Amino acid sequence: MGDRMETDILAELIGRKLRALLQLRELTLRQSTLIADDDTQTLLRVFAAKQKLLEEILRLDRELGPFRVQAPEDRVWRSPDDRVRCRHAAEYCQRLVEEIKTAEKRDCNELIDRREALGRQLETANAAADARSAYQSTSAATRIDLSSET
Description:
Elements: H1 6-37, H2 40-68, H3 80-141
Helix pairs in contact: 1-2, 1-3
């Protein structure tokens, strides 16, 4: 196919964005499990993989930029089916973005809750250590030597 049409490029870009968003959704689902399991090391690897996908999605969005200013009805497609497939893929991309955003917000709130719980545990542990230390200091200061020296 030597005669690539502009809409072929559009469909290809949307297809690549869709595949990247599907991968991002899978990692986001895995992220939720890792948060629940407190698997920080694997979670950090998932964050790194997600960062690469986000960079790819942003690059694809930049490439899609010129198509956003076009009137959709002015585009020439190879067939009506190609147009419909591309529109459905673009709509699915939007649904995936919303799904991912919702999951990210939920996971972020879960991480904040865990951080705050850990902070409370540390405060409790520090308070117990401070009380123990104060008790030991008071106890040592109030000891009376009852040994007899005769």
